[in-house]
Amino acid sequence: MRIKLEKITRNYGEIPALRGISLEVNDGEIMTVLGPSGCGKTTMLRIIAGLLEPDSGRIFFGERDVTALPPEKRRVGMVFQNYALFPHMDISENIGFGLRMRGSDKGHIRKRVEEALSLVGLDGYEKRMPSELSGGEQQRVALARAIAPEPDILLLDEPLSALDAGLRISLRHDIRSIQRELGITTIYVTHDRDEAMDISDRIAVLNRGRLEQEGEPEEIYRRPVNPFVARFLGDANLINVNVTNGTARTPFGNFRGDFEGRGYLFFRPGDCTISDDGMDEGIEVEVISSRIRSGLLEITVKYGEERIKLHEKESLARKYDIRPGKRIKVRIDTDAIILLKP
Questions:
Q1: Which domains does the chain have, with CATH numbers?
Q2: What is the CA angle 240-36-45, rounded to 5?
Q3: Averaged confidence pLDDT in the chain
Q4: How many Å apart are CA 218 and CA 229, to the nearest integer?
Q5: How many CB atoms within 10 Å of residue 324?
Q6: Model pTM score
Q7: In the prediction, which pLDDT does 260 show?
Q8: Gyration radius (Cα) of the chain, Å
Protein backbone atom coordinates (compact mmCIF):
# COMPACT_ATOMS: atom_id res chain seq x y z
CA MET A 1 0.00 0.00 0.00
CA ARG A 2 1.53 3.32 -1.11
CA ILE A 3 1.19 6.29 1.27
CA LYS A 4 1.14 9.86 0.01
CA LEU A 5 1.04 13.04 2.08
CA GLU A 6 0.16 16.28 0.31
CA LYS A 7 1.10 19.55 2.07
CA ILE A 8 0.11 18.39 5.56
CA THR A 9 0.03 21.12 8.21
CA ARG A 10 -0.87 20.86 11.87
CA ASN A 11 -0.68 23.49 14.61
CA TYR A 12 -1.08 23.23 18.37
CA GLY A 13 -2.57 26.62 19.10
CA GLU A 14 -0.01 29.10 17.79
CA ILE A 15 2.77 26.49 17.66
CA PRO A 16 3.33 24.86 14.23
CA ALA A 17 3.96 21.11 14.47
CA LEU A 18 3.97 20.28 10.74
CA ARG A 19 4.62 22.85 8.01
CA GLY A 20 3.38 21.68 4.63
CA ILE A 21 4.80 18.13 4.66
CA SER A 22 4.67 16.33 1.30
CA LEU A 23 6.03 12.80 1.28
CA GLU A 24 5.52 9.46 -0.47
CA VAL A 25 6.18 6.01 0.99
CA ASN A 26 6.41 3.28 -1.62
CA ASP A 27 4.48 0.04 -1.48
CA GLY A 28 6.27 -2.52 0.72
CA GLU A 29 9.14 -0.32 1.87
CA ILE A 30 10.15 0.78 5.34
CA MET A 31 10.66 4.51 5.67
CA THR A 32 12.14 5.97 8.83
CA VAL A 33 11.08 9.43 9.94
CA LEU A 34 14.13 10.78 11.76
CA GLY A 35 14.51 13.95 13.77
CA PRO A 36 15.00 15.48 17.23
CA SER A 37 12.34 15.60 19.92
CA GLY A 38 9.55 18.03 19.07
CA CYS A 39 10.19 18.04 15.32
CA GLY A 40 6.73 16.65 14.43
CA LYS A 41 7.49 12.95 13.93
CA THR A 42 4.80 11.55 16.20
CA THR A 43 2.26 14.15 15.06
CA MET A 44 2.78 13.02 11.47
CA LEU A 45 2.40 9.35 12.44
CA ARG A 46 -0.81 10.01 14.37
CA ILE A 47 -2.26 11.94 11.42
CA ILE A 48 -1.53 8.99 9.12
CA ALA A 49 -3.20 6.65 11.62
CA GLY A 50 -6.25 8.91 11.83
CA LEU A 51 -5.74 9.68 15.53
CA LEU A 52 -5.23 13.38 14.70
CA GLU A 53 -6.70 15.53 11.95
CA PRO A 54 -4.47 17.79 9.83
CA ASP A 55 -5.31 21.48 9.69
CA SER A 56 -4.79 21.30 5.94
CA GLY A 57 -3.52 18.90 3.30
CA ARG A 58 -4.53 15.41 2.19
CA ILE A 59 -3.53 11.79 2.89
CA PHE A 60 -3.77 9.00 0.33
CA PHE A 61 -3.48 5.25 0.80
CA GLY A 62 -2.91 4.06 -2.74
CA GLU A 63 -5.35 6.12 -4.84
CA ARG A 64 -7.83 6.49 -1.98
CA ASP A 65 -8.15 9.80 -0.12
CA VAL A 66 -8.36 8.79 3.57
CA THR A 67 -8.01 12.28 5.08
CA ALA A 68 -11.50 12.16 6.62
CA LEU A 69 -11.59 8.38 7.22
CA PRO A 70 -11.81 7.29 10.90
CA PRO A 71 -8.86 5.25 12.24
CA GLU A 72 -10.77 1.97 12.55
CA LYS A 73 -11.39 1.98 8.79
CA ARG A 74 -7.81 2.67 7.70
CA ARG A 75 -6.40 -0.88 8.16
CA VAL A 76 -3.38 0.47 10.01
CA GLY A 77 -1.42 -1.36 12.72
CA MET A 78 0.41 0.80 15.27
CA VAL A 79 3.16 0.03 17.80
CA PHE A 80 3.66 2.60 20.55
CA GLN A 81 6.74 3.51 22.56
CA ASN A 82 5.20 2.40 25.88
CA TYR A 83 3.86 -0.96 24.57
CA ALA A 84 0.24 -0.03 25.62
CA LEU A 85 -0.63 -3.64 26.56
CA PHE A 86 -3.75 -4.29 28.62
CA PRO A 87 -2.40 -5.43 32.03
CA HIS A 88 -5.55 -7.43 32.92
CA MET A 89 -5.48 -9.49 29.69
CA ASP A 90 -3.15 -12.39 28.94
CA ILE A 91 -0.97 -12.30 25.83
CA SER A 92 -3.46 -14.14 23.65
CA GLU A 93 -6.22 -11.70 24.60
CA ASN A 94 -3.96 -8.70 24.00
CA ILE A 95 -2.95 -9.86 20.53
CA GLY A 96 -6.50 -10.85 19.57
CA PHE A 97 -8.06 -7.60 20.79
CA GLY A 98 -8.22 -5.89 17.39
CA LEU A 99 -9.64 -9.00 15.75
CA ARG A 100 -12.37 -9.28 18.40
CA MET A 101 -13.28 -5.63 17.80
CA ARG A 102 -13.74 -6.54 14.12
CA GLY A 103 -16.05 -9.38 15.01
CA SER A 104 -13.75 -12.18 13.81
CA ASP A 105 -14.71 -15.71 14.88
CA LYS A 106 -12.78 -17.48 17.66
CA GLY A 107 -11.10 -19.97 15.33
CA HIS A 108 -9.68 -17.22 13.11
CA ILE A 109 -8.53 -15.21 16.14
CA ARG A 110 -6.74 -18.23 17.64
CA LYS A 111 -5.02 -18.96 14.32
CA ARG A 112 -3.85 -15.35 13.85
CA VAL A 113 -2.62 -15.11 17.46
CA GLU A 114 -0.52 -18.26 17.01
CA GLU A 115 0.87 -17.02 13.68
CA ALA A 116 1.73 -13.59 15.08
CA LEU A 117 3.44 -15.05 18.16
CA SER A 118 5.47 -17.38 15.97
CA LEU A 119 6.50 -14.48 13.75
CA VAL A 120 7.86 -12.48 16.72
CA GLY A 121 9.53 -15.53 18.31
CA LEU A 122 7.17 -15.95 21.29
CA ASP A 123 5.56 -19.33 20.61
CA GLY A 124 3.81 -20.69 23.71
CA TYR A 125 3.39 -17.32 25.44
CA GLU A 126 -0.41 -17.20 24.94
CA LYS A 127 -1.41 -17.54 28.62
CA ARG A 128 1.28 -15.35 30.17
CA MET A 129 0.44 -11.93 31.59
CA PRO A 130 2.23 -8.72 30.49
CA SER A 131 3.71 -8.31 33.99
CA GLU A 132 5.52 -11.64 33.56
CA LEU A 133 7.42 -10.46 30.46
CA SER A 134 10.59 -8.43 30.00
CA GLY A 135 10.49 -5.08 28.20
CA GLY A 136 11.73 -6.67 24.99
CA GLU A 137 9.12 -9.43 25.17
CA GLN A 138 6.36 -6.89 25.81
CA GLN A 139 7.42 -4.93 22.73
CA ARG A 140 7.32 -8.14 20.67
CA VAL A 141 3.77 -8.71 21.90
CA ALA A 142 2.87 -5.14 20.91
CA LEU A 143 4.26 -5.84 17.44
CA ALA A 144 2.34 -9.13 17.24
CA ARG A 145 -0.88 -7.31 18.20
CA ALA A 146 -0.30 -4.74 15.45
CA ILE A 147 0.23 -7.33 12.70
CA ALA A 148 -2.37 -9.91 13.79
CA PRO A 149 -5.29 -8.17 11.97
CA GLU A 150 -3.20 -8.17 8.75
CA PRO A 151 -3.09 -4.39 8.27
CA ASP A 152 -2.12 -2.71 5.01
CA ILE A 153 0.21 -0.31 6.81
CA LEU A 154 2.40 -0.63 9.92
CA LEU A 155 3.33 2.44 12.00
CA LEU A 156 5.97 2.28 14.75
CA ASP A 157 6.45 5.24 17.11
CA GLU A 158 9.92 5.04 18.72
CA PRO A 159 9.20 1.39 19.59
CA LEU A 160 12.65 0.62 21.03
CA SER A 161 13.54 3.80 22.92
CA ALA A 162 12.69 2.32 26.36
CA LEU A 163 15.02 -0.67 25.88
CA ASP A 164 18.74 -1.02 26.57
CA ALA A 165 21.22 -0.61 23.72
CA GLY A 166 21.97 -4.28 23.08
CA LEU A 167 18.30 -5.23 23.00
CA ARG A 168 17.49 -2.32 20.67
CA ILE A 169 20.00 -3.60 18.11
CA SER A 170 18.62 -7.15 18.28
CA LEU A 171 14.98 -6.07 18.04
CA ARG A 172 15.46 -3.64 15.17
CA HIS A 173 16.98 -6.45 13.12
CA ASP A 174 13.97 -8.62 14.01
CA ILE A 175 11.54 -5.84 13.03
CA ARG A 176 13.32 -5.44 9.70
CA SER A 177 13.19 -9.18 9.07
CA ILE A 178 9.47 -9.38 9.92
CA GLN A 179 8.71 -6.35 7.73
CA ARG A 180 10.46 -7.96 4.78
CA GLU A 181 8.68 -11.28 5.31
CA LEU A 182 5.27 -9.59 5.42
CA GLY A 183 6.06 -7.06 2.69
CA ILE A 184 4.05 -4.47 4.60
CA THR A 185 4.46 -0.73 3.99
CA THR A 186 6.01 0.61 7.19
CA ILE A 187 6.77 4.00 8.72
CA TYR A 188 9.21 3.88 11.63
CA VAL A 189 9.69 6.97 13.81
CA THR A 190 12.94 7.44 15.73
CA HIS A 191 15.46 10.04 16.89
CA ASP A 192 18.27 7.45 16.76
CA ARG A 193 20.36 7.91 13.60
CA ASP A 194 22.03 4.47 13.90
CA GLU A 195 18.61 2.86 14.10
CA ALA A 196 17.47 4.79 11.03
CA MET A 197 20.59 3.90 9.01
CA ASP A 198 20.29 0.23 9.94
CA ILE A 199 16.59 -0.41 9.37
CA SER A 200 15.48 1.85 6.51
CA ASP A 201 14.92 1.61 2.78
CA ARG A 202 14.61 5.39 2.85
CA ILE A 203 14.86 8.11 5.50
CA ALA A 204 12.87 11.33 5.87
CA VAL A 205 14.59 13.91 8.09
CA LEU A 206 12.30 16.33 9.95
CA ASN A 207 13.29 19.49 11.82
CA ARG A 208 10.89 21.97 13.42
CA GLY A 209 7.98 20.59 11.46
CA ARG A 210 9.71 20.80 8.08
CA LEU A 211 10.89 17.99 5.82
CA GLU A 212 14.59 18.75 5.36
CA GLN A 213 15.53 15.82 3.11
CA GLU A 214 14.40 12.34 2.10
CA GLY A 215 16.25 9.58 0.31
CA GLU A 216 18.21 6.37 0.75
CA PRO A 217 20.39 6.18 3.89
CA GLU A 218 23.73 6.29 2.04
CA GLU A 219 22.58 9.23 -0.10
CA ILE A 220 21.51 11.33 2.89
CA TYR A 221 24.64 10.41 4.85
CA ARG A 222 26.99 11.27 1.99
CA ARG A 223 25.11 14.16 0.38
CA PRO A 224 23.12 16.07 2.99
CA VAL A 225 21.34 19.18 1.73
CA ASN A 226 22.21 21.40 4.69
CA PRO A 227 24.30 21.52 7.90
CA PHE A 228 21.43 20.30 10.09
CA VAL A 229 21.09 17.04 8.14
CA ALA A 230 24.88 16.69 7.96
CA ARG A 231 25.21 16.88 11.76
CA PHE A 232 22.13 14.84 12.59
CA LEU A 233 23.21 11.85 10.47
CA GLY A 234 26.59 11.53 12.20
CA ASP A 235 29.92 13.18 12.96
CA ALA A 236 30.44 15.91 10.38
CA ASN A 237 33.21 18.32 9.46
CA LEU A 238 31.86 21.73 8.44
CA ILE A 239 34.60 24.18 7.43
CA ASN A 240 33.67 27.85 7.06
CA VAL A 241 34.35 29.24 3.57
CA ASN A 242 33.42 32.27 1.46
CA VAL A 243 31.72 31.70 -1.89
CA THR A 244 32.49 34.33 -4.53
CA ASN A 245 31.14 34.16 -8.09
CA GLY A 246 29.75 30.71 -7.25
CA THR A 247 33.14 29.29 -6.19
CA ALA A 248 34.77 28.58 -2.83
CA ARG A 249 38.57 28.73 -3.24
CA THR A 250 40.18 26.76 -0.42
CA PRO A 251 43.44 24.93 0.45
CA PHE A 252 41.53 21.71 -0.29
CA GLY A 253 40.61 22.80 -3.81
CA ASN A 254 37.94 24.89 -5.53
CA PHE A 255 34.29 23.97 -5.07
CA ARG A 256 31.29 25.24 -7.02
CA GLY A 257 27.98 26.30 -5.51
CA ASP A 258 24.76 28.01 -6.54
CA PHE A 259 24.94 30.72 -3.89
CA GLU A 260 27.12 33.61 -2.72
CA GLY A 261 28.60 34.55 0.63
CA ARG A 262 29.21 32.30 3.62
CA GLY A 263 29.12 28.54 3.21
CA TYR A 264 30.56 25.28 4.52
CA LEU A 265 32.76 22.55 3.14
CA PHE A 266 31.25 19.30 4.37
CA PHE A 267 32.96 15.91 4.68
CA ARG A 268 32.82 12.97 7.09
CA PRO A 269 35.62 11.99 9.53
CA GLY A 270 36.12 8.78 7.56
CA ASP A 271 37.08 10.86 4.49
CA CYS A 272 40.29 11.98 6.26
CA THR A 273 43.48 9.93 6.61
CA ILE A 274 46.83 10.50 8.28
CA SER A 275 49.55 11.00 5.64
CA ASP A 276 52.37 8.44 5.57
CA ASP A 277 55.71 9.47 7.05
CA GLY A 278 57.89 11.43 4.65
CA MET A 279 55.11 12.33 2.20
CA ASP A 280 54.49 15.99 1.34
CA GLU A 281 50.81 15.67 0.44
CA GLY A 282 48.17 16.80 2.92
CA ILE A 283 47.76 19.67 5.35
CA GLU A 284 49.67 20.07 8.58
CA VAL A 285 47.47 20.09 11.68
CA GLU A 286 47.82 19.96 15.46
CA VAL A 287 46.25 17.13 17.47
CA ILE A 288 43.75 18.46 20.01
CA SER A 289 42.44 15.16 21.37
CA SER A 290 42.15 11.48 20.59
CA ARG A 291 40.33 8.46 21.93
CA ILE A 292 39.78 4.83 20.99
CA ARG A 293 36.14 3.74 20.76
CA SER A 294 34.93 0.39 19.43
CA GLY A 295 38.30 -0.28 17.81
CA LEU A 296 38.31 3.10 16.05
CA LEU A 297 40.77 5.94 16.65
CA GLU A 298 38.82 9.20 16.85
CA ILE A 299 41.06 12.25 16.49
CA THR A 300 40.26 15.95 16.64
CA VAL A 301 42.84 18.27 15.08
CA LYS A 302 43.23 22.03 14.73
CA TYR A 303 43.69 23.63 11.31
CA GLY A 304 43.86 27.41 11.62
CA GLU A 305 40.71 28.32 13.52
CA GLU A 306 38.90 25.17 12.42
CA ARG A 307 38.50 21.80 14.12
CA ILE A 308 38.57 18.65 11.97
CA LYS A 309 37.56 15.15 13.09
CA LEU A 310 39.27 12.02 11.74
CA HIS A 311 38.42 8.35 12.15
CA GLU A 312 41.35 5.97 11.70
CA LYS A 313 42.43 2.45 12.61
CA GLU A 314 43.28 1.92 16.26
CA SER A 315 46.78 0.65 15.36
CA LEU A 316 47.72 4.10 14.00
CA ALA A 317 47.60 5.54 17.52
CA ARG A 318 50.81 3.67 18.24
CA LYS A 319 52.38 4.05 14.80
CA TYR A 320 52.11 7.86 14.79
CA ASP A 321 52.22 8.35 18.58
CA ILE A 322 49.02 10.37 18.46
CA ARG A 323 48.79 12.74 21.43
CA PRO A 324 47.61 16.29 22.12
CA GLY A 325 50.02 18.94 20.83
CA LYS A 326 51.66 16.72 18.20
CA ARG A 327 51.68 17.99 14.59
CA ILE A 328 50.73 15.54 11.85
CA LYS A 329 49.78 15.69 8.21
CA VAL A 330 46.28 14.84 7.09
CA ARG A 331 44.84 14.13 3.66
CA ILE A 332 41.20 14.71 2.79
CA ASP A 333 39.41 12.91 -0.04
CA THR A 334 38.37 15.93 -2.09
CA ASP A 335 35.87 13.84 -4.07
CA ALA A 336 33.91 13.43 -0.81
CA ILE A 337 33.71 17.19 -0.10
CA ILE A 338 30.52 19.05 -0.94
CA LEU A 339 29.67 22.74 -0.56
CA LEU A 340 26.66 23.53 1.62
CA LYS A 341 24.62 26.65 2.25
CA PRO A 342 24.34 27.76 5.91
A1: 3-226 (3.40.50.300), 235-340 (2.40.50.100)
A2: 135
A3: 91
A4: 13
A5: 10
A6: 0.91
A7: 92
A8: 24
